[in-house]
Design brief:
Layout (H helix, E strand, L loop, with lengths): L4 H9 L1 H15 L4 E2 L8 H12 L4 H12 L1 H8 L6 E6 L7 H10 L4 E7 L2 H14 L4 E2 L2 E2 L2 H11 L3 E6 L9 H14 L5 E7 L4 H8 L5 H17 L8 E8 L4 E8 L3 E5 L2 E5 L4 E8 L3 H10 L2 E8 L5 E8 L1
Parallel strand pairs: 1-12, 2-3, 2-6, 3-4, 3-5, 6-7
Antiparallel strand pairs: 7-14, 8-9, 9-12, 10-11, 13-14
Helix pairs in contact: 3-11, 5-6
Length: about 325
């Protein structure tokens, strides 16, 4: 999440970016059931709304992982550094680096030779992040990479041959279906080299009321966050969604660990997107996002099946969240 004010508009107006956006949106809404990709939540307003979500008392994920990065920084550093060897610290979906900045300050203050390479699809956030970190951690070497994760990992490898440490925080691994998460981790393994490490944040299964409240706040910020994607489609694809005709709905299955958000069509209606008519029935759903929760055995299985060994783990004080450190075998 990110400010160079012009960057976001340049992305949105660029031909390849808008073409991919159009194809993904039309492809998702012509599926049965209908589906939209959560990666498109993050336009400028979406960035702002997600910042508000992370500040909500119900949204425990931020505070749990912040607890780890703020109070167990030296433990993290010991798990990702190796024999004082220089490395590149790559953060996937860096956002505002609120959590990782504690680690970055620790590394700089302790003279660790590393380059921070934040990757984010939102140019707006990367620009803000670059300005913020250069001011707050003047000794930090930072190279911002704007784009999709694996494209930018390839770019990072081309820029530097140093050992890589990848951060994938915030429980974002849970924004994938189970098989998709395995595929992602296997591709991540193939993108790295022997000895490289990955720190992945996992939200653990816990009291289902705690989880559901985190994604269904009474103030409606999460609902606005989901509905904002329809507003973005209207603006960028000249669509005509009536936002008042859709309602946010949240569910959590404590057995599978899948926490899912939907938008519900409140009436029979037709929406036009770029001259394509999309028909909605009353009460028809758009699948917006999954936020998968994990057990420790789930994490172990995911690491092993995707070609990693677990080098260590760090939990928050409530034991609601785990940052698991994996090593490429």
């Amino acid at each position: 999440m990110n400010l160079k004010p012009n960057i976001n508009s340049q992305i949105e107006n660029s031909s390849p970016g808008i073409t991919n956006f159009r194809l993904d949106i039309l492809g998702g809404l012509t599926k049965n059931p209908k589906q939209l990709s959560s990666k498109y939540f993050y336009d400028k307003k979406g960035d702002h709304l997600f910042q508000k979500i992370m500040a909500m008392p119900e949204y425990y994920l931020t505070q749990c992982e912040l607890d780890i990065f703020k109070n167990k920084t030296s433990e993290i550093a010991s798990l990702i550094t190796a024999d004082n060897e220089p490395f590149d610290l790559i953060e996937l979906g860096a956002g505002d680096a609120m959590k990782s900045s504690y680690l970055l300050k620790y590394l700089v203050e302790n003279g660790v030779d590393c380059t921070y390479m934040p990757i984010d699809i939102s140019g707006n956030i990367l620009s803000i992040l670059d300005q913020k970190l250069k001011k707050e951690i003047p000794g930090l070497d930072i190279v911002c990479l704007e784009g999709e994760y694996f494209d930018m990992l390839d770019k990072a490898a081309a820029l530097s041959s140093r050992r890589k440490v990848v951060l994938f925080l915030g429980g974002n691994i849970g924004n994938m279906e189970v098989q998709e998460a395995y595929d992602f981790c296997m591709q991540l393994n193939r993108s790295l080299s022997l000895g490289d490490r990955v720190l992945v944040g996992f939200d653990l299964k816990k009291n289902p009321h705690t989880i559901l409240n985190a994604y269904n706040d009474k103030t409606g910020i999460t609902a606005d966050f989901n509905l904002n994607l329809l507003t973005r489609i209207n603006r960028e694809l000249e669509a005509d969604f009536d936002i008042e005709n859709f309602q946010h709905y949240q569910t959590y299955d404590p057995v599978s660990g899948a926490c899912r958000s939907y938008l519900v069509s409140l009436t029979d209606q037709q929406v036009t997107i770029d001259d394509t008519a999309i028909t909605f029935r009353e009460n028809e759903l758009i699948d917006m996002e999954v936020s998968q929760k994990f057990s420790e055995s789930d994490i172990e299985e995911l690491a092993q099946r995707s070609g990693f060994t677990i080098a260590g783990k760090i939990t928050d004080s409530k034991k609601w969240f785990i940052d698991s450190v994996w090593k490429v075998q």
